[in-house]
Amino acid sequence: MYLTLVLFNALVTAAYLVLCSKVMKESGLSPNATIAAVHLPAAALLAIPAFLQPHGRFAVSGAVLSWLAITSGLKLLSKELAFFGYANTDVADVTVWSAFIPIFGLLFGVVMLNERVAPVELLGTLIVCVSVYLLFLKRDAARGPLGFLSPFFALGRGPVLAAVLSVVPIALASVYMKKSALVMGELPFSFVSTLLIGLGAAVIESPRPAAYRGVPTLGLLGIAALFALAQASWVALMTHERVAHTVAFQPLGIVFQMALAYAFLGERDTPVKRLACGTGIVAGSALLHLGGR
What we know:
With 293 residues, the protein is mainly α. Helices cover 77% and strands 0% of the residues. It has helices spanning 2-27, 31-52, 62-88, 91-95, 101-113, 119-136, 150-153, 158-165, 167-184, 186-205, 217-240, 243-247, 252-264, 271-292.
């Protein structure tokens, strides 16, 4: 059941992100406007099961409210950075950096939750880093001594740099997410967190109401439904397993996103190389998973 939920979450998350990238590139919708247009309807969808859940707990302590606020703020910051990347470059160049989320999740789990690191997790970390390096290594790298530094030059591109910076906030948010969801319940937390992120993005975008013109309403409602499923399933996974163990599965979505971007967005740049590097990332993440057991 757990692995089935992991695969389901990876697939719906990949679909929602690729479709968001498609909408932003075709309609010119800004990252914040997209976040608001997806999260607010998703919060409405999540509200129904959240209030019907018999064990939902909306009366929480000040500490839990602070955890919830931190989680929502960090996730909004991460989404703004990542969506900027999705709007301005290939999906593969953005999603690959999510491979570092389990690594930072492992680090924060150690620091904040006293979780231990196994040697196999260190090996998995090394494999992920090498795979990402090879993905950005240019074909003509051997022609000059600086060619082997080309993956680092890629960080100078705004959308790629934004994708890299989006990793740390979401990894840290994973820890606070688990702490909040354990107290509030999975669905109530999913609803409140999604609502706060949507409202935050809407407030940021409020000085530019014209940004919503020409928005494909039905399309965004469909994306919102996918996100609601992704959010609820992810919180369920995070609640019932170690942080490092659960986030180790997140790079599975990288392969799904690359495949969907190839099929629906026409991103056909070195698909074999991307698939091979994506497989390496998944292999490294599998070692992170094994160490987390």
